[in-house]
């Protein structure tokens, strides 16, 4: 769906991607607690983090919401934490997190998500590559009824890096069906239930839009201008990332096609159905051969097909047992983690007077 949004901001405001076909069906919402949590992963960002926090505090003055700014120091070796700590002591909106070591961007996001209290949870990179003016635009989209908002940085780079990014996006789009232009953008926003259900391992933060699509989230992506970072270099980029992305695509494929509807794609049904077909087929083959032995006196010892039939029966029973084991593991997963195989967008009830 391609449409235009009117805006006074300098950055282009074109909606480049949306899985909502009828905007009129969007239901406007309003954060109940009036808090927007903003998670900022940081690694050696001493030259940028202060400007980022100052910029967010300025954006808060233009918003009806109270900001909860959560910079996460991912084991920086410079003065990043000292700067974060000084801001957290001066401003009640700033809640700093210092990790014991450099665990990676996904884990920095997770640490911030785990303490976020806002009804809306936003992600903001510390490099200022995406203008902070987009923070309030993201909030406006969430208010209008979207569940997840992504930004597309226009003119961010060219050459070999653009080619690699283009190929990666096409592969991911083929798998997930989501035509997101800029999965690597450091500025995104979502409703709290989505953030609470996201559990990051490895480098799975790269596929946030694809994961939230599993829950049927209403997704929108709009364009914004790209700004080169003023200080430092990104610690979350490199040639090794390509290999990691390809490996993580395997997990993404499983999540999208087998975990999309856990109430229908249960292991017991998947393995049980396959095992039943194998067992019945093997039993039928064995029955025909045994019948031939009884009626026509055919020998079974020189019939490899008989061995195949027996083997199919055994394998079918084993697969059914794997299905039962999978059922138990899935139940343990949901019950022990407190997660649900569904997600509620909102609840409507009559208010007590």
UniProtKB/TrEMBL annotation:
Q: Where is the Glycosyltransferase 2-like domain?
A: 37-166
List the GO terms this entry assigns under cellular component, sorted alphabetically. plasma membrane
> Gene3D superfamilies this protein is in?
Spore Coat Polysaccharide Biosynthesis Protein SpsA, Chain A (3.90.550.10)
Q: Output the Gene Ontology terms for molecular function.
A: glycosyltransferase activity
Q: Where is the signal peptide?
A: none
Question: Per the UniProt record, which residue ranges are transmembrane?
Answer: 270-290, 310-334
Q: Which Pfam families match?
A: Glycos_transf_2 (PF00535)
**Which SUPFAM superfamilies does the entry mention?**
Nucleotide-diphospho-sugar transferases
Q: Name one GO biological process term.
A: lipopolysaccharide biosynthetic process
Q: Which InterPro entries match?
A: Glyco_trans_2-like, Glycosyltransferase_2, Nucleotide-diphossugar_trans
**Sorted UniProt keywords:** Cell membrane, Glycosyltransferase, Lipopolysaccharide biosynthesis, Membrane, Transferase, Transmembrane, Transmembrane helix
What PANTHER family does this protein map onto? UNDECAPRENYL-PHOSPHATE 4-DEOXY-4-FORMAMIDO-L-ARABINOSE TRANSFERASE (PTHR48090:SF3), UNDECAPRENYL-PHOSPHATE 4-DEOXY-4-FORMAMIDO-L-ARABINOSE TRANSFERASE-RELATED (PTHR48090)
Protein name, per record: Glycosyltransferase 2-like domain-containing protein
């Amino acid at each position: 769906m391609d449409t235009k949004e009117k805006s006074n901001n300098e950055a282009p405001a074109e909606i480049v991607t949306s899985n909502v076909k009828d905007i009129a069906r969007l239901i406007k919402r309003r954060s109940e607690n009036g808090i927007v949590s903003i998670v900022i992963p940081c690694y050696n960002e001493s030259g940028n983090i202060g400007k980022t926090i100052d910029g967010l505090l300025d954006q808060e003055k233009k918003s009806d919401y109270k900001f909860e700014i959560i910079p996460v120091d991912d084991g920086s070796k410079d003065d990043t934490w000292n700067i974060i700590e000084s801001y957290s002591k001066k401003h009640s909106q700033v809640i700093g997190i210092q990790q014991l070591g450099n665990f990676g961007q996904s884990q920095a996001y997770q640490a911030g998500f785990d303490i976020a209290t806002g009804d809306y949870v936003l992600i903001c990179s510390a490099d200022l590559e995406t203008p902070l003016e987009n923070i309030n635009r993201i909030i406006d989209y969430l208010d209008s009824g979207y569940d997840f908002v992504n930004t597309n940085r226009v003119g961010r780079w060219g050459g070999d890096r653009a080619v690699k990014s283009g190929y990666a996006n096409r592969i991911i789009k083929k798998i997930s069906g989501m035509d997101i232009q800029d999965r690597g953008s450091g500025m995104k926003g979502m409703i709290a239930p989505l953030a609470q259900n996201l559990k990051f391992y490895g480098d799975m933060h790269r596929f946030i839009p694809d994961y939230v699509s599993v829950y049927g989230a209403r997704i929108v992506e709009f364009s914004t201008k790209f700004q080169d970072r003023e200080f430092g270099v990104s610690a979350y980029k490199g040639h090794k990332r390509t290999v990691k992305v390809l490996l993580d695509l395997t997990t993404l494929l499983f999540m999208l096609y087998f975990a999309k509807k856990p109430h229908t794609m249960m292991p017991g049904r998947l393995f049980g159905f396959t095992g039943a077909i194998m067992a019945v087929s093997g039993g039928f083959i064995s029955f025909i051969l045994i019948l031939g032995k009884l009626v026509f006196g055919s020998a079974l010892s020189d019939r490899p097909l008989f061995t195949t039939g027996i083997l199919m029966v055994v394998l079918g029973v084993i697969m059914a047992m794997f299905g039962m084991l999978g059922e138990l593991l899935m139940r343990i997963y949901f019950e022990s983690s407190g997660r649900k195989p569904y997600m509620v967008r909102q609840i409507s009830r009559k208010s007590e007077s």
